[in-house]
Amino acid sequence: MIEFAIGLSLHLGLVNSYNEVHPHVRYRTENNYITGIYYNSVRNVSTYAGKRWEFGDWGVEGALVTGYPQADVVPFVRGTYKNLFIAPAVEEDKPGVVVGVEVKF
What is the pTM of this model? Predict the structure, then answer.
């Protein structure tokens, strides 16, 4: 299944300026393997591949993703509830969190 979405995010506990609008295209298999492309918080295009686990309205996604300055490929995890999401963030070795809403089309 192909999904099109726009994510809107807030970066909490971080001091730099980040992109808060994330167009997103995802392909999801019957077994909830995921791969996609999105415009990330540091204004780069990211690609990823991983897995999604669902528990009713709740979900957890784990993936490897490109497009961030820390390394060529970094781990990614986010929790979801319906169309809301939360993910950990790191800025200069200081922790933060990204929260947001994803609108699917």
Answer: 0.92
* Per-residue model confidence as pLDDT tens digits over 79-99: 999 999 999 999 988 999 999
End-to-end CA distance of the chain: 12
**Phi-psi map region of 82: left, alpha, beta (phi>0 left; psi -120 to 50 alpha):** left
**Can you give the residue ranges of every domain in the chain?**
2-104
For residue 89, give both structure tokens: 């963030």
Side-chain-side CA neighbours of 105 within 13 Å: the count stands at 8
Structure tokens at 17: 């300026």
Interior angle at CA 66, CA 64 and CA 71, nearest 5: 95
